[in-house]
Design a protein that fits this description.
Helix content is about 45%, strand content about 10%. By secondary structure, it is mainly alpha-helical. Helix 8 runs antiparallel to helix 9.
Length: about 450
């Protein structure tokens, strides 16, 4: 007889049953029960599953660091600088303590011992800097590029974590512009010595943040200097290979990419790709779609009414205001409707959990975040080719999964339409506490 095991997984329990087939589509239950786990939340109200995930992530991070150190040791052995065992002994015993001073001062003025060079590079391998690979980082990258990220971000843990990260990146970028020819280690070292930073390490306060690209540059500078000082017994070409191997091990990361073949085609223009959800065109399309079907009690909706509503929205966009949704109350105000003229026969508000909430006509995605760039939005809307520019922007956001290439493509598009230069103001002209809107 066929037996079937059925499982019901919950966040704090596991239910199961064992069924046995008696005849076709007829079963009897042999056993069933529920296994209870701990309560899903700890005494502080935090999800235990979240805690387990965080711990698993931390273990994975530590394992990746160990793997990088081991790969670094293999590179030193491959180029005949130190054996793998010697490198791992240095890592285990940690005889060299002041690695920041070694990186910022000694490595650029004196020939290092092989043990010191490994200590410097293993220090970079453990703390290799921040690399933005998430699409959602793009707006923060654009804000940072335009100087819109304020350095004085509230340290409260409830604050936007990404904004705190980019505020820390902004502080370091400002210091880099002050010490233009220095490596990132020299910049941090001087900032600590001058009291600008409290210490070399962050203490869960996002005081500073180093980019991965800065570490790549520092590797090249330090190895090049050590080659010039005669500390590395390598040929010129071999030294270049050594740098490439170090950068690949310490800073390289596989960047995710979008598969354009997975983008769906438009329902109305089958030969063209559908507009991305996160785009001006898609938001406007959603509004037009709702307005086409708009029904109002005791009122005949005309095309002029629809254009009036769209014009109202366009004016708000031009002012650089976030528009998360368009609600019934706004439509009533625009069209000067009386109380008995209800949209779709419904009240302007609905009751949710005992609270009155405005009823939404349409919700927006792209338009809900435009307040970060009011001047940019106004500039685009002033162009004759406004829809084409927004369409190209949407395609760039869709094609590039990671922020850096997307930002470069957006900058090129804005330059092409003479929209980038008015937005870009040199950081030297702004104080760290000055708030500027674009």
């Amino acid at each position: 007889m066929k037996k079937i095991l059925s499982l019901d997984l919950g966040i704090s329990s596991l239910g199961y049953s064992v069924l046995e087939e008696q005849e076709r589509n007829s079963y009897i239950c042999l056993d069933n029960s529920v296994i209870m786990r701990d309560a899903p939340y700890d005494k502080d109200g935090k999800s235990r599953q979240t805690s387990r995930s965080e711990q698993a992530g931390q273990r994975a991070l530590i394992e990746k660091r160990r793997r990088r150190i081991k790969n670094l040791a293999r590179i030193f052995e491959k180029f005949g600088i130190l054996t793998y065992k010697e490198c791992m002994d240095i890592q285990k015993k940690n005889p060299i303590k002041d690695k920041w001073r070694l990186r910022a001062e000694v490595a650029l003025s004196e020939a290092l011992k092989p043990e010191e060079l490994f200590a410097v590079l293993s220090h970079m391998a453990k703390h290799r800097g921040y690399k933005s690979i998430a699409t959602e980082d793009l707006l923060y990258e654009l804000e940072l590029e335009l100087g819109l990220i304020e350095e004085s971000v509230d340290d409260d843990s409830s604050a936007d974590e990404k904004r705190r990260v980019y505020a820390a990146l902004g502080r370091v970028e400002r210091l880099k512009s002050r010490y233009k020819t220095d490596t990132i280690a020299q910049v941090i070292h001087k900032a600590v010595q001058e009291g600008e930073f409290r210490s070399y390490r962050n203490h869960d306060d996002y005081e500073k943040m180093i980019r991965r690209e800065d570490i790549e540059h520092e590797i090249e500078v330090i190895v090049g200097k050590q080659y010039d000082l005669g500390a590395l017994k390598l040929g010129s070409e071999e030294c270049g290979e050594f740098v490439e191997a170090l950068q690949e091990t310490i800073t390289d990361q596989v960047m995710p990419e979008n598969d354009a073949s997975l983008f769906g085609n438009c329902s109305y223009y089958p030969d063209e790709k559908a507009a991305p959800r996160y785009s001006y065109l898609y938001d406007i399309y959603r509004l037009y779609k709702v307005l086409a079907d708009l029904k109002i009690d005791h009122y005949d909706v005309t095309q002029e009414d629809r254009e009036k509503i769209v014009g109202y929205l366009t004016d708000k966009v031009a002012k650089g205001k976030n528009i998360k949704q368009f609600n019934y109350k706004e439509v009533r105000k625009i069209l000067s409707l009386s109380e008995d003229q209800k949209l779709f026969g419904k009240e302007d508000q609905m009751i949710i959990k005992g609270k009155a909430t405005e009823r939404s006509l349409v919700k927006f995605f792209f338009l809900s975040e435009i307040a970060r760039f009011p001047t940019l939005m106004k500039s685009i809307l002033s162009q004759n080719s406004v829809l084409m520019i927004f369409a190209e922007l949407a395609e760039l956001l869709r094609l590039h999964k990671t922020p850096k290439p997307a930002l470069e493509a957006i900058e090129a598009l804005l330059l092409q339409n003479d929209l980038w230069a008015p937005l870009k103001i040199p950081s030297a002209n702004k104080s760290s506490n000055q708030k500027v809107e674009y």
